[in-house]
Amino acid sequence: MLLWSLYALRLAVARVEEKVDRILAKEIRMAKTLDDVLADVTAQTTVVQSVLTLIEGLKQQLADALASGDPAKVQAVLDGLEANTASLSAAVTANTPAPPTP
To answer: For residues 80 and 58, is the Cβ–Cβ distance under 8 A?
Structure first.
């Protein structure tokens, strides 16, 4: 009877160890996923700051061009704005995953 109890106890401990191992493996995967998300957020923050700098620069260029009263300068800023808009749109489209199909 004592041997049977020890055997049952060993089986129970083995099951607990197996479950703990699975939990630890999931925790490691979750930590890696969280690290990936944090890296993505950092990269996006850098991109957002670059876009904000671009917009502020364009705003100042347009203000300067309008203040100069030179239609060619205004047109040059507008052309640059269109080119940047196209580049940003292409980048967003290229880096936006397609929605999952149901």
So the answer is: yes
In whole angstroms, give the CA distance from residue 51 to residue 40: 16
The residue type found at 19 is K
Exposed, middle or buried: residue 83 (CB in 10 Å: 0-12, 13-18, 19+)?
exposed
- Domains in the chain: boundaries: 2-93
- What is the rounded distance in angstroms from the CA atom of residue 22 to the CA atom of residue 92? 38
Q: What is the pLDDT along the chain (102 residues), one digit of tens a residue?
A: 777 888 888 999 999 999 999 998 988 888 788 888 888 888 888 888 888 888 888 888 888 888 988 889 888 888 888 888 888 888 888 877 777 787
Could you tell me the two tokens for 79? Answer: 């052309």
Amino acid at position 56, single letter: E
